[in-house]
Amino acid sequence: MKDPKNIIGVVKIGGAKGNAPETLLRDLSLRLAAGEKWVLVHGASGAMEDLCEAAGREPQYVTSPSGFRSRYVPQETLRLFEYACASFSVGLISSLARLGVPAEPLYPVDAVTGKARRKDVLRVVEGGKKRILRGNYSGSVTSFDPGPVLDSWKKGFLPLLPPLASDEDGKGSLNVDGDRLAAAAAAALGADILLIFTNVPGLMKDPSDPTSLIPEGYLEDWEDVESFAKGNMKRKILAAREAIEGGVSKVVLADSRNDRPLIRALDGGGTVLCRKCTGTEE
């Protein structure tokens, strides 16, 4: 069994309404108390929807020709998204403080961890027709500097990463996918495990049937794994592959709504993805 002081993990909690971070944070506090090192990456879609509603602005989601769903982020929407990230971060920090866990948010303006290449032009499919959207301020993560995370650990904090990265051209922040940011962080830190939590049990053969959960998948059979990914799950599967190819031993896609979500995920609950699985994490 590995010494807890040598265990490194990254956990991603979705920001969509329906996710339940409180029980997950409780589990995480216990692992931290045992001496493990963790990074918490979060989304902000629920907070973003609330802000857009308050501002009288409709969030715009688009689908690429390859089937990936993402948010179209013009410059004015990016500012709202930054506020939504801050709002979600503050909520997590407050909850963690009540559990005795000091957390430090690492935002691009203060601590550059992820860098991203801006996707100014989006090719999307609407009504069966392809079109182009310009002026987008989202990006794809191209690198991750673990330095700020290591510094945060040294100070005794739990590093908290919002779905933002620094534009690699030095032109401010960009909205990035939280799952892929978590994968980049896990690979750069040499993490033992990446846990991606959502509001479904994991990867399922039939998204409407929880009993069709796929318990595990291997890199050598990845085409089979990908074939079952629909909607937002497609990007989570992509993030899992990037993490595994980056050297992460194991990725688990799990349900945040369980009564002990992190503990169950570490015991193999959800969908366990790896190069070649050899057992569950102790």
Which helices and strands, and how do they pair?
Elements: E1 8-13, H1 21-33, E2 37-42, H2 45-55, E3 61-63, E4 69-71, H3 75-98, E5 103-105, E6 114-118, E7 122-126, E8 129-133, E9 139-144, H4 147-154, E10 158-161, E11 164-167, E12 173-175, H5 178-189, E13 193-198, E14 216-218, H6 222-227, H7 233-245, E15 250-255, H8 261-266, E16 271-274
Parallel strand pairs: 1-2, 1-13, 2-10, 5-10, 6-11, 13-15, 14-16
Antiparallel strand pairs: 3-4, 6-9, 7-8, 11-12, 15-16
Give, in order, the helices and strands. Answer: EHEHEEHEEEEEHEEEHEEHHEHE
Oligomer: single chain
Characterize the biggest β-sheet: 8 strands, mixed
- Percent strand equals 25-35%
Which structural class should the secondary elements be placed in?
Answer: alpha/beta
Uncertain ranges: none
Arithmetic mean of pLDDT: 91
Q: What is the CATH superfamily label? A: Acetylglutamate kinase-like
Count of β-strands: 16
Q: What is the CATH topology?
A: Carbamate kinase
Radius of gyration: 18 Å
Q: Please tell me what the overall shape is.
A: globular
Output the number of helix runs.
8
Please identify, by name, the CATH architecture: 3-Layer(aba) Sandwich
List the strand order in the largest sheet. 5-10-2-1-13-15-16-14
Q: What is the name of the CATH class?
A: Alpha Beta
Number of domains: 1
